[in-house]
Amino acid sequence: MSVAIKSTPGATSRRLLGKLAQGLLTLMLTLLGLLLITFLLSALSPVDRVLQIVGDHASAATYEQVKHQLGLDRSLPVQFWHYLERLAHGDLGIASATGAPVLQDLRHAFPATLELATLSLIIGATLGVLLGVLCARFVGSKLDVAVRLITLLGNSVPIFWLGLLLLLLFYAKLQWSAGPGRLDDIYQYSVEAKTGFALIDTWLSGDMGAVRNALAHLVLPVCLLAYYSLASITRLTRSACLSELNKEYVTLARAKGASEMRILFRHVLPNIGGTLLTVIALAYTSMLEGAVLTETVFSWPGIGRYLTTALFAGDTTAIMGGTLLIGVCFVIINNLTDLLVRLIDPRARLS
Question: Which of 29, 59, 88 is the last residue of a domain?
């Protein structure tokens, strides 16, 4: 005779606190590993940071003095410890390309990338899930074939080539869209950058012409990034829905007279919510770290363009700061996603 053992509320609370503590420890270790990797990449870089400051014609005494001031004449463990101390005070160094603190540059560049990626994700995820459900409902139909072809192209065509094509067609030829950049020159210097987000700043300025101009500049890059996120989200939603439609609870719902669309939206989507949330989060992080080509094509002053400029200038300090910011965003978003999956999916709580 088997005896069922019920967990007490105290035991459940202790288990949840244990998992939370384990998650926080994992997050801290991951961030520490990220800091170590970015530091080693900078330390082992062939670019001489001292020469970037003093120039090629500086004397040996000046070179050694600046090297000592930067702490580069010390051992790597000591340099790493001082690097952590500077990070604790918000000091990421001075970018040689701009002459400004890297933290200040990132504060100006990151909102542009965040605005672009967030709007693209909202559109791409919404349409991707909807199209994926419709393809699963009408599998094998003309709609299914057309959507699968479109998503296949989204996963195959280089993003920079499609971006240039969009600019050539809708900006240069048809003149239906605004050009590169976030705002036209007439608004660029008249709108105060209070938050760093073009839509919010133009709205706060009270100039509706500036708001419309900001929207016009967002259309092409947002549609481009949304298309690429839509492609992967649609394909995964379709395959996940088709896999769930063969399970017993769907057969039971059909036997009770539920329609196919009701089954998909009321029963299937909640069951694949954890998987969809993970894919959407990965799409978001890929936009934050992979919008380099899009920002370069559309002259978008975000993190991607900032890193590209720093890379061509050999500015290791700026590259290190931008890479660290993107890595921290990646780690935080992934950990938050794991937490949300555990909250919405009871099956994940058992693992």
Answer: 88
Model confidence, pTM: 0.81
At 72, phi and psi to the nearest 5?
-80, -5
- Residue-wise pLDDT tens digits, 246-271: 888 888 888 888 888 888 888 888 88
219 and 191 housed in the same domain = yes
Residue for token digits 């780690």? 331
DSSP letter at 7 equals P
Which tokens sit at 169? Answer: 């067609």
**Which residue type does 311 have?**
L
How far is it, in rounded angstroms, from Cα 170 to Cα 162? Answer: 12
Q: Residue 350 has what pLDDT? A: 52
Cβ within 8 Å of residue 91, ≥6 positions away: 101, 103
Ramachandran quadrant class, 181 (left: phi over 0; alpha: psi -120 to 50; beta: rest): left
302: domain CATH number is 1.10.3720.10
Read off the amino acid at residue 298: F
CA 238, 244, 249, 252 torsion: positive or negative?
A: positive
Q: Which residues pair with 101 in a beta bridge?
A: 94
Q: Which domain holds residue 112?
A: 105-349
Cα R_g (the chain), whole angstroms:
25
Q: Give 303's contacts (C-beta < 8 A, 6+ positions apart).
A: 106, 109, 110, 112, 113, 288, 291, 295, 322, 325, 326
pLDDT tens-digit map of 151-206: 888 878 888 888 888 888 888 888 888 888 888 888 888 888 888 888 898 998 88
